Amino acid sequence: MVKVKVVFYATFRDKFKVNEINLEIDGTLKGLIDALVNSLGEEVKNELYDENMNYIKRDVIMLINGRSIEYLGGADVKFNDGDKIAIFPPVAGG
Question: What average pLDDT does this structure show over 70-89?
Answer without folding.
Answer: 95
